[in-house]
Amino acid sequence: xxxxxxxxxxxxxxxxxxxxxxxxxxxxxxxxxxxxxxxxxxxxxxxxxxxxxxxxxxxxxxxxxxxxxxxxxxxxxxxxxxxxxxxxxxxxxxxxxxxxxxxxxxxxxxxxxxxxxxxxxxxxxxxxxxxxxxxxxxxxxxxxxxxxxxxxxxxxxxxxxxxxxxxxxxxxxxxxxxxxxxxxxxxxxxxxxxxxxxxxxxxxxxxxxxxxxxxxxxxxxxxxxxxxxxxxxxxxxxxxxxxxxxxxxxxxxxxxxxxxxxxxxxxxxxxxxxxxxxxxxxxxxxxxxxxxxxxxxxxxxxxxxxxxxxxxxxxxxxxxxxxxxxxxxxxxxxxxxxxxxxxxxxxxxxxxxxxxxxxxxxxxxx
Length: 366
Ligand SMILES: [Mg+2]
Hints:
This protein has about 375 residues and is α/β, with parallel strands linked by helices. The protein contains twelve helices and 13 strands. It has helices spanning about 60-70, 80-95, 100-120, 125-130, 150-160, 175-185, 200-210, 230-235, 250-260, 275-290, 300-310, 355-365; strands at about 5-15, 35-45, 50-55, 135-140, 165-170, 190-195, 220, 240-245, 265, 290-295, 320-325, 325, 340-345.
């Protein structure tokens, strides 16, 4: 059960937004391709497990960091010791940051170890962590930023026509947000994610301007993401439930957020926040502290599949986030295609589905 081989695979697949703005640049020119930075672990008896690290912009530097700093610490370890391996790698590398690249790599390793555990047991991940409460999860269409009233209204109607009943916007202009809510009408519930643009004062002004639109939550209104006091001020005075957590590094960040009174909805990301092991802890912390657990998922590799299992395994399954993009090729084929606003929980062992080697070959960057 020793890990004989650990490697990473970076693919970047072109997508279509249906008229949205290029969603991110992050140090380079915005690109319409999406990274799936995968970790592949192979045990000495030939079993293969897959994980995923958060990545954007064909990030070969991140891949190299994971290859040279994280994966060498995993080779030779007993794959059954998931928590032990995760702890040891975190402890060894904690000086290089508790949030960000190193933790993304550790998250990928943890997901791959759980995939191996499921494959070894012959049971799907959802069963290993409590059992699926549902055969399908309810997906929300997480729209990219469209920037104009016409374009966002079109995207909202298109997602409703495709069967979505929950929609998240990434808009920051009040008239555009209002137009999206009007387009949704009674056909879908709308959430708003602003990705940390404002001071507390600015966020409170927007919060007031959005009053009456019926937004289900208000996500990351304040800069910087770790400004828990700022989030708490918006939450205390504002009119909306506050969601945050995709930029957290571990359970301890959620404890700090909760103690500050910063959030109603906790959004850990399985490929950023320590993998399956850490999300299970965060879920139980939320349960015991009256927070809504709703994982962040802007992932299309094994991290997406792991999040489906984690979602289904909750007694009250949270909504499942999927960025509203259409890919040139699907890494998991039909298994990750949304039908009628829902995704099926794979029922094979481990994650239940492996990435398609033909898609890897065609879109591999490094
Ligand atoms: Mg977000």
